[in-house]
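ok, trying the design again with the full structure, not the truncated one.
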């Protein structure tokens, strides 16, 4: 379903291609759970999960539930539609969010339900689940401390 709402990206942009390492993240998202991949050997989070831990070089990971909150590390406000289909969606905010409960983990996500002019580095955000398609749910974030 096309939302066509300012700040919410169109559904056709949600074209996921998960692989063996990322399927658990997207399966948890469908259940509205934000999870992170943690090394079973040394506890280092690695998102997106890569085949080897950057600290201890082990491969095994475990997926742990995260609280679904975080902090804006950086962001950009997109005001110009780079393709005509985005003209009714600007302005929108894309942020890099430091995720609580998973040190070193940063997710790139849209900031929704929030005034783009209020988004700042350091603001707290909370996850908002966007059930885009029957099989695709994407984590977005909204300002949580306003
Ligand atoms: Zn490790």
């Amino acid at each position: 379903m096309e939302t066509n709402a300012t700040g919410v990206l169109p559904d056709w942009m949600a074209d996921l291609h998960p692989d063996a390492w990322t399927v658990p993240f997207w399966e948890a998202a469908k259940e509205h759970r934000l999870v992170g991949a943690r090394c079973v050997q040394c506890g280092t989070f690695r998102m997106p999960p890569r085949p080897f831990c950057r600290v201890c070089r082990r491969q095994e990971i475990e997926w742990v539930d995260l609280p679904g909150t975080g902090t804006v590390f950086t962001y950009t406000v997109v005001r110009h539609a780079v393709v005509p289909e985005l003209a009714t969606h600007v302005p929108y905010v894309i942020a890099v969010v430091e995720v609580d409960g998973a040190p070193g983990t940063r997710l790139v996500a849209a900031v929704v339900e929030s005034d783009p002019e209020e988004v700042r580095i350091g603001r707290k955000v909370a996850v908002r689940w966007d059930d885009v398609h029957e099989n695709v749910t994407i984590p977005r974030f909204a300002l949580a401390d306003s």
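Keeping the full-length input from now on. The helical segments are 23-30.
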